[in-house]
UniProtKB/TrEMBL annotation:
Its main location: other. Keywords: ATP-binding, FAD, Fatty acid metabolism, Flavoprotein, Lipid metabolism, Nucleotide-binding, Oxidoreductase, Peroxisome. Its cofactor is FAD. This is Acyl-coenzyme A oxidase. Residues 274-436 form the Acyl-CoA oxidase C-alpha1 domain. GO terms for biological process: fatty acid beta-oxidation using acyl-CoA oxidase; lipid homeostasis; very long-chain fatty acid metabolic process. One of its GO terms (molecular function) is FAD binding. Residues 32-144 form the Acyl-coenzyme A oxidase N-terminal domain. Residues 474-651 form the Acyl-CoA oxidase C-terminal domain. It is found in: Peroxisome. It comes from the Eukaryota. The lineage of its organism: Eukaryota, Metazoa, Chordata, Craniata, Vertebrata. It comes from Corvus moneduloides.
Amino acid sequence: MALLETSKYPQGSVLGSVNPDLASERQTASFSVEKLTALLDGGTEQTRIRRAVVEAIESDPVFSRENQYFQTQNERYESAVRKAVHLQKKMHEMGWTENGPEYKALAGDVAFLLHRVFMRSISVLGSDKQIAKWIPLATQHKLIGSYAQTELGHGKVAGKTAFLYDTRLQPKFPWEFDSKLSATHTVVFAQLYVHGKCYGIHPFIVQIRSLQDHSLCPGVTAGDIGPKMNFEHIDNGYLLLKNVHIPRENMLSKFCEVRPDGTYVRQGSQKINYFTMTTVRISLISDEVLTPLMKACTIAIRYSVVRRQSKLKPGEQEAKILDYQTQQEKLLPQLAAAYAFHFINDYLQELLNRGYIEIQKKNFDMLPELHALSSGFKAVITQHCTAGVEICLRACGGHGYSLLSGLPSLYTKILASCIYEGENTILLLQAARFLIKCFMAASAGQPVPPSVTYLAAVKHGKCPAKNKLDFLSPDIYTEAYQHVAVRLTSSTAEKLQDLIQSGVNKHDAWNQCTVQLVQAAKAHCHYIAVKNFAETVEKLETKAGIQKIMKHLCDLFALHGIFSNTGAFLHDGYTSPAQMDMVTASYLDLLAVIRKDAVPLVDAFDFTDKTLNSALGSYDGQVYQRLYQWAQKSPTNQMSPAYETYLKPLLHNTLSKL
Ligand SMILES: CCCCCCCCCCCCCCCC(=O)SCCNC(=O)CCNC(=O)[C@H](O)C(C)(C)COP(=O)(O)OP(=O)(O)OC[C@H]1O[C@@H](n2cnc3c(N)ncnc32)[C@H](O)[C@@H]1OP(=O)(O)O
Ligand SMILES: Cc1cc2nc3c(=O)[nH]c(=O)nc-3n(C[C@H](O)[C@H](O)[C@H](O)COP(=O)(O)OP(=O)(O)OC[C@H]3O[C@@H](n4cnc5c(N)ncnc54)[C@H](O)[C@@H]3O)c2cc1C
């Protein structure tokens, strides 16, 4: 680590002024940062509200993140609970609502994360009566909810847990947030049995602790699952239920119900019971996945214009590391991906809103498409963003590895998003299952949902690009992506059919195709993300230079995907090796163009220094003295008992021999 460099900047001498290396980057912005921020927020009024919330939260000492990096697991948990309880008070005072921007401002800091998923389950799967009973209690925190779905030996959906109508409940051992100490209630996903007949998975509200003294209810065993990679502030717990009785009314029954005489009634699709997962998979993208990538890009890009290493040309001063093409190639595609996924998130939210309106009217037609897109994109975005945060961390060298950079905790936290709410491979296979069905239907001339109509249009042409500039045409690259998605889906569907026709059992045949199915699902999502980005750019205003810079980012996102997956594009000759050289040339040209706006592009994310909580990423770029000052706070600077016990005897022993 190069902390000694702080000697160049006497402690505290320049904090408050902006590092000139960073200041100069802002003077040449080709667009209005403020207007881009408003675009990302969804309007100037939203920006104003978000900033007011951030200001109210950050000026309140209870929400301080100072010393966070030096806290123990118990201190983090206690602080997260304190913040969550205080937030409720503050929300009441300020008139903030559950779905407002305050959770974004506090991302990663408050307890009771799963309380929100508990509430979401009741809102989407509960009857009006259940909503009227439980939601006010939950909103006022008269109970604390959690979400119990995963089983110890089973990560899919409730394999062994069962509720037997009017009889007994079997044990469960899930991973669960907020349950060691906090949760009083949980939504359990379990098989429903009525008079010996299994009706599949259903959600049930189960009280696990007394509301009087917080002791565990009869038949309930719960505890903390032990240390984890991150989420120290959340008490993920295990839960065992044995012979637990719950009232019949506790089965969430907007769509399915057991009547007092044991008659089971269902409206529409049984799969609606999975709907909480669909909504949460989309809801978590913004705060849990995109925000960490945007923060990581902000930290790494600001640092990369402050950090100087080696000389680009002999005789010149040391270069900013962002001036190295390899550094640009690490960071700028991550920045482009952050924007691409921001826009696809808008698309998914809009799809979810539309789908939910229909579902409330008991029209379930959009459910399969919603499931496929939410699953596929949850997997693709979490995977991409996790890799992106790691790239940002490594791009900051040794200082990136310090917790004080903010990057390691962003990484260990975002990594969990590849696993929770459905492990990514499982989700990609769910998306692929939908793709194969739709491909078959489209091939038979049947109608398919809008996002997959392109599967019917199998074209066997060639990429028409003649020179590198042609690859800056959205039509050219979107079509290339579409071609790859269709090819991977159609060839895998053919392989599947061939295997089945040759006598292979259909489950074995499916397993023998899963690697290619995963590729097809990824290609499908990548195609939609590129198409959506290009369409969004098309609709942007040309003013304030925003459309131009967004177009560059869209081109970069698309060409980076081709550049990094050349095999998929070359495979059947749709794109030629000469055209791949054109892609490479355009891609590298774009890096140099976007580099000029890299700092304004991350400034537009509009994170405050307190939100970033990074010694490397602050707005003023005073990296070294902040690192030095923050390091002083480390409790490890106190003399350790290890000195008296081990080092002193060792050193004294050495001394006597000198
Ligand atoms: C709330 C607001 C704030 C939000 C922001 C809060 C912050 C939040 C922060 C992070 C918080 C982390 C919180 C972690 C919380 C957990 O991790 S909770 C545990 C989550 N667990 C999972 O997601 C499990 C993942 N696994 C699965 O979903 C199931 O294994 C699978 C993949 C659906 C398979 O189940 P299965 O019944 O064996 O499925 P399978 O036979 O493959 O499919 C059955 C049919 O159901 C359909 N299907 C499956 N799933 C669905 C679905 N969801 N919809 C529709 N149809 C479906 C299939 O398409 C298939 O249809 P057909 O092709 O037969 O027509
Ligand atoms: C931070 C965190 C918080 C969580 N919070 C909660 C919570 O609040 N409530 C809750 O209920 N759960 C929670 N979970 C659990 C989480 O939902 C599960 O871990 C997740 O769904 C994956 O299931 P699993 O762990 O059983 O993995 P497994 O399903 O055992 O997966 C292990 C490996 O096997 C592979 N695999 C499994 N099945 C297949 C298949 N059919 N085909 C191909 N490959 C397969 C997977 O791809 C993976 O590589 C949490 C997890 C984490 C990390």
